[in-house]
Amino acid sequence: MTKRGKPIDVCVCVWKIPLICDFSTIFHMHTHLPNHHRSVSPSPAVDRHCAKPGFALIATISVMVLLVMIALAMLSLSTIELRASQNGRAMAEAQANARVALMLAIGKLQQHAGSDMRITATADILDASYPPALGVWRSWEGSNNQASGTLKGRPIAPDYASQKNMFVVCGDRHWQYVSLDAKTGVREYSCGPTTNKHATGFSMKNRSDMHQYLKIKGGFLRVDVDRVDGKPQVTFRHHGVDGKVLNEDIQHEN
Fold first, then answer.
1. 24: in domain
2. In angstroms, how far is the first alpha carbon of the chain from the final one?
3. Which end of the chain has the smaller Cβ count within 10 Å, N or C?
4. CA separation for the pair 148, 142 (Å, rounded)
5. Using only C-alpha atoms, what is the Rg of the chain?
6. Residue 2 lies in a domain
């Protein structure tokens, strides 16, 4: 109001930032002093944007719930994988223990049965009317034993010469060799010891014509049986302790 008492128009602009709306709401108020007031109302554009309050809060909560569900699913999956791994390890350990127990039981059975020429079998293999009682049998019982001499009672050596495509592989020698018996034509292979330290008991000076290969070394013998052009083929490879091939002998069907 001026000194002369004339009324004046006052325009008051109020800017209010709501908590939910994403922009300011502008109120215009026009007042005639001293006793005239006009009503205040938001603009129609603001009403349209603020008609759905709380949308951002609901969207945020929904995303958080989704993330929690994904985290729980991953935790459940990892728990299942851990249990499966533990079960597999326990199964492998149980199988290994069972295998060792079976080997020990067979060893004890052979120890009580006697020499390695004895076998165990049930009595009903001779006659079905016999009870299935387990007994110890002489595997070389019969007329194929030595009748005299220092080897009396021992099994007679098989006739290797009559066997076709037969090879003898032994592991009781401390050196590697391939020998060919001139009388029977039998080829014999020795794998030798597994270390060079135990390669002893023979000398290269003792090599004879029967030795197709001779090495006072440790290692191992590998035997591969294949079929080439429809015919069987066997390959004998002597390896050193480092795995290198020292000798290779390929034999075909006769």
1. yes
2. 133
3. C
4. 15
5. 49
6. no
